[in-house]
Write the structure tokens for this entry.
Amino acid sequence: MKIKILGSGAGGGLPQWNCNCANCRRARDGSGDVLPRTQSSIAVSDDGVDWILVNASPDLLAQLRAQPDLQPARAMRDSGIAAVVLSDAQIDHVTGLLMLRERTTPLPLYACAPVLEDLSTGLPLVPLLGHYCGVDAHPIALGEPFAIPACDGVRFTAFPVDSKAPPYSPHRASSVPGDNIALLIEDVASGMRAFYAPGLEKINGDVRAAMHRADLVLVDGTFWRATEMIDLGFSTKRAADMGHLAQCGDHGRPGMIDWLDGLPRGTRKVLTHINNTNPILDPHSAEHALLREHGIDVARDGMQFEV
Ligand code: MLT
Ligand code: MN
Ligand code: ZN
């Protein structure tokens, strides 16, 4: 199966519209090899013609323009996008749904019940799209493999992860199972697997086991340090307060690098959903070099994996 990274940035992308941090400055003025990033999304396909979006970012139209594969032009109105799976109800993962409103058939949307609930109340995109193409909602059952008809060579299994529901959600402060999921994405024919979790605050037993079953691990790379936003004076929140596990450990607790170090040799390890403040976005930084020493890649828009 093919996995494309449509967007490797976190909320706000890179450069973020109102940010002048070192990375945003360099991405904006083209200096320093810091590549711009759009917001977090991947596309999965078993045949390279019909694709499943995992998350629909606000930058979806630009992402589709950059990926002609997703426009097979089999008819006067056509798209390679067969369905959308959501990992959560975060703004950077769902607002692109509105860009698909010109579909000629209801949009097949796969998400856990708490996400569908948030998208029918706090951010009512689902009823709103009912005035356009309509939504064919498919609640995801945690732990139960499911396939999507247009792409039946791929099987998804959703695992609940500890992260945060979006700030507008009534359960922001007390997340419920399904608010955030990781996905084990399996090629049915080959048995090869990818693990995808753009939002991951803690790694519990099930998540760790799923990571260990994957050939490609594509995970939350939002922050280098737990206090990144505090250190820059941008926020009073630590990474965990926003639902993210930083790459570096914190107060004796392992960071994402430590967890990735524990994966079987030969596992492809890639960080995505990278916040514009993260120093790993500078390919000449010591942080980027340290990731390389640990065999960890930094995602870029347009990266494609054959799994
Ligand atoms: C997050 O991942 O923390 C959120 O997506 C941030 C945002 O987009 O508001
Ligand atoms: Mn996000
Ligand atoms: Zn910035």
Notes: The two ends are 5 Å apart (CA to CA). The chain has one domain: 2-306. The mean pLDDT is 97.
